[in-house]
Specification:
12% strand, alpha/beta, Rossmann fold, 191 residues
């Protein structure tokens, strides 16, 4: 059986273009699963229903690779699940058809490209943070203690008062105490 899946990310978007593409590929309306739900979250009702519906030997057709998922990991997990269940995948806009060896190869190439792109973005983000830190930029929420409270905390930390006790005394989380302690040990002013 040939099964279609169409998804848009917001309620304002329209599914018509995707549904037309699926119909033009011979998919009966009864076998088209549709939803308006973000692709960044795997738990999507129509997607889950479709995954439960498809069986060994079926072909899943989507208009674009981005309709299945938005992250490389998610796409590869879904593809692996489909392969394990012996369900083929046909992606119309990228011309990927895993019923053919060329389609299987193309999917592998796309997966590598998406993975490469993701790693490059992460690398750029890390380099940007490092450059900002080198220029003295501070990331994260600002510390909220007043200067006299900071001095009090610093002296209490030097006298080895347990962070849990300090957190209760100062009405803070234990993690905040650890964050201040780390900043103090780095000889930086946490303000």
């Amino acid at each position: 059986m040939i099964v279609g899946y169409a998804r848009v990310s917001t309620k304002d978007q329209n599914l018509d273009r995707q549904i037309d593409a699926l119909r033009n590929n011979g998919i009966d309306d009864r076998n088209i699963f549709k939803e308006k739900h973000t692709g960044t979250i795997r738990k999507r009702p129509a997607f889950e229903e479709m995954m439960a519906f498809i069986q060994q030997g079926d072909i899943l057709v989507v208009e674009s690779i981005s309709r299945i998922g938005r992250s490389v990991r998610d796409l590869l997990n879904i593809m692996n699940e489909l392969n394990e269940r012996k369900v083929q995948l046909k992606i119309l806009s990228e011309n990927i058809d895993t019923t053919t060896i060329t389609g299987q190869f193309m999917y592998g190439v796309f997966a590598l490209i998406y993975d490469y792109d993701h790693k490059i973005k992460l690398e750029n983000i890390c380099e940007g943070f490092a450059a900002g830190k080198a220029r003295g930029k501070k990331y994260g929420a600002p510390f909220k203690l007043k200067p006299y409270e900071m001095e009090q905390l610093k002296s209490r930390l030097k006298s080895n008062v347990a962070p849990k006790v300090l957190a209760k005394e100062l009405n803070m989380t234990v993690q905040s105490i650890y964050n201040y302690r780390r900043r103090f040990s780095e000889n930086q002013n946490p303000s």
